[in-house]
Amino acid sequence: MALITLLSDFGSASGYPAAMKGVILSLCPTAQIVDISHDVERHHIRAGAFLLWMVAPYFPEKTVHCAVVDPGVGTARRPIAIESGGQFLVGPDNGLLIPAAERLGRYSVFHITNEKYFCAPVSRTFHGRDIFAPVAAHIANGLSPRELGPLITDYIKLSLGEGVRRGRVLEGEIAYIDTFGNLITNIPGELLKEIAPGTALVVEVSRKVASARYASTYGEVEQGELIVTVGSHGQLEIATNLGSAAQRLRAHTGETVTITIAPPKK
Amino acid sequence: MALITLLSDFGSASGYPAAMKGVILSLCPTAQIVDISHDVERHHIRAGAFLLWMVAPYFPEKTVHCAVVDPGVGTARRPIAIESGGQFLVGPDNGLLIPAAERLGRYSVFHITNEKYFCAPVSRTFHGRDIFAPVAAHIANGLSPRELGPLITDYIKLSLGEGVRRGRVLEGEIAYIDTFGNLITNIPGELLKEIAPGTALVVEVSRKVASARYASTYGEVEQGELIVTVGSHGQLEIATNLGSAAQRLRAHTGETVTITIAPPKK
Amino acid sequence: MALITLLSDFGSASGYPAAMKGVILSLCPTAQIVDISHDVERHHIRAGAFLLWMVAPYFPEKTVHCAVVDPGVGTARRPIAIESGGQFLVGPDNGLLIPAAERLGRYSVFHITNEKYFCAPVSRTFHGRDIFAPVAAHIANGLSPRELGPLITDYIKLSLGEGVRRGRVLEGEIAYIDTFGNLITNIPGELLKEIAPGTALVVEVSRKVASARYASTYGEVEQGELIVTVGSHGQLEIATNLGSAAQRLRAHTGETVTITIAPPKK
């Protein structure tokens, strides 16, 4: 059973994802198609890269992820296909696919040049429909990425970064803000592992300082209290029980985060 | 053909529903997955329960409904699976599944304790992905809910209530406000059955009183006029032709509704 | 493999599309269902017609498009099914299906009268679930539209219009505004074909006049500059690189657009 995921900033109501699905199902009628999101913040490559990084490991082998957050469509930016850990990724060469590829395993990147697998004529503004969707369908049908074009190593790298800890201070940045206003950081949860639930913390996001508490789940604290927890993705997450941490701290993706563990009381 | 529906308050763009789908399709590659909604008002168990109640009867036998509106995730609240009228429901023990289960037929509730069917390790904040999705996939594959854990009777009950009529006065509450701003009440449509289209009514929602007309469809009245009609779900619905009744009456889910039939003119 | 698309103004989170899917999968368990959009502006038949016109050609033969933007539900407006270019369209007789039908090929329109294919009882307010979804499923199962009712020719016509060029002046209207705020016109792209990228243009939308540049892709101009380009649908599109043209020009669907080619400098 062929499985293809789609991720874009087209808007789920725009009709553009549907056009991609029509192309895919014309070439691979039995494909299962799963939408990861079509509402990535427009042209926000890092936010798209984070989502793909977050969900790709939960998909089975041979899944083809077709991702299009592509401010450079129609310019010289190259289309690429990646094989990693038994899964495939197809999209623009702008870093979008790289964090997921790294997480899935050792990976190979191919520059897609073989126009035989495109929808003709290729428009200048919608490679999602004319290049990425048909290429994803062909891979789902069993085509090896090797057939698409040459192996390259000069693709654009992108790292979501990794927060660090120095003594009582953890530093990183906001990788993603989810629907609930939870601030998902790039600080690995294990850096706080030895801390007991309830430990007092101080959170600083772009010059706003707030008290928080380490919690192992949202329900452990009073309503409205700020907590730091290890999210379902394994990263530290700043949240409030029944409220939006993003609104409360007026926080944005990409901003620096500092979490300080309060010294034990004497 | 295995059929699984998903309902949550995660936001369709959040990536969390996609992670659940990846887990489901890893275990049950041929599953058809249908999204009921991922935009239930956050933590609003009654609104989620209403949607599930509304759509479940339209699905075929053996459908597995996996629903996650779950403010208590990570606390002592239990995961449950229900068998009812040939369909299955999986989700938290907080009342969310009960109105749909009652509507589908006689039902049995099982406390999910058999960790063999979970994704390990189980996170503290995302049981949708780690417990409910894999359990739903196993049921879709043919597993009996009996294998999941003990039958229980002390699950949390939830009733959407049922409006009543006393003479010319009907009383109930707003069960749900749909995308059009239509106010869907918990008053059964048959309580107004003998009324002729065009009959004058008085509607009162949280101290705001307005004139309305009974209509058998939206198109029967002038633009902007307030109507009471029997919605597609069989409940009385307060709507305006081409406009939002919710906005006009500043109404919210859960508020009390009174509908009074005007006495016939002499 | 049966393939059914859905388009509506119900809102993707409303539960109504899910009820339609339940009906479809009860009758045709192997159907692939693709959402084109459920967030068409409420009751905006032309916007729905444009989306369907835009994406239908990308779907394979035998696809059944089930579209419901239906302000006249429950009135005398007829339900229709159309066969065109090997695909099928099902929905209300209000013009919604016609531009797509014309684009797909020569077409025949049938008045759906055979109640055998409806879900009983038919509600007055939700023909999407009770008439259009089951009829679409039956067609996907192989039923000929001829079995549904008589061939008719007095169906309601709708044209998205076609912009024209007189010398240096092109005139048309805004057919659709997409998620990015791009203004998609009904002026065919070929009317500007001989123009060189970078050519200066003057755009007028509902009395607001602005300078623009012809570009073959978004990335060719400075951030914020207004461009006219041939969109992925083949129509002229007014856009800004990284911004919303709709917001900048305060433009709305249906408004008149004039594009004037500046005379070459001497």
Q: What do these coordinates show?
A:
Three copies of one chain form a homotrimer. Chain A is 18% helix and 32% strand. Chain A is an alpha+beta fold and 266 residues long. The first copy, chain A, has two domains: 3-152, 3-Layer(aba) Sandwich (Rossmann fold); 164-261, Elongation Factor Tu (Ef-tu), domain 3, CATH 2.40.30. In chain A, strand 1, helix 1 (16-27) and strand 2 (32-37) form a beta-alpha-beta unit. The longest helix of chain A is centred in the middle third of the chain and has 14 residues, at 127-140. Chain A is elongated and about 70 Å long. The mean pLDDT of chain A is 92. Chains A and C meet through helix 1 of A and strand 2 and helix 2 of C.
Tell me the number of strands of chain A.
15
Helix content of chain A: 10-25%
The most extensive interface, with participating residues per chain, is: A-B, 34 and 30 residues
Oligomer kind = homotrimer
Low-confidence stretches of chain A: none
CATH T-level fold name of the largest domain in chain A: Rossmann fold
Q: Using the 3D structure, state the CATH architecture of the largest domain in chain A.
A: 3-Layer(aba) Sandwich
Structural category of chain A is alpha+beta
**What is the averaged pLDDT score of chain A?**
92
Query: What amount of the residues of chain A lies in strands?
Result: 25-35%
C-alpha geometry of chain A: elongated
Strand order of the largest sheet of chain A: 2-1-3-5-4-6-7
The total count of helices of chain A amounts to 5
**Secondary-structure element order of chain A, as H and E?**
EHEHEEEHEHEEEEEEEEHE
End-to-end gap of chain A? 61 Å
CATH H-level homologous superfamily name of the largest domain in chain A: S-adenosyl-l-methionine hydroxide adenosyltransferase, N-terminal
> Main beta sheet of chain A, described?
7 strands, mixed
CATH uppermost class of the largest domain in chain A: Alpha Beta
As for the number of domains of chain A, it is 2
> What's the alpha carbon Rg of chain A, rounded to whole Å?
20 Å
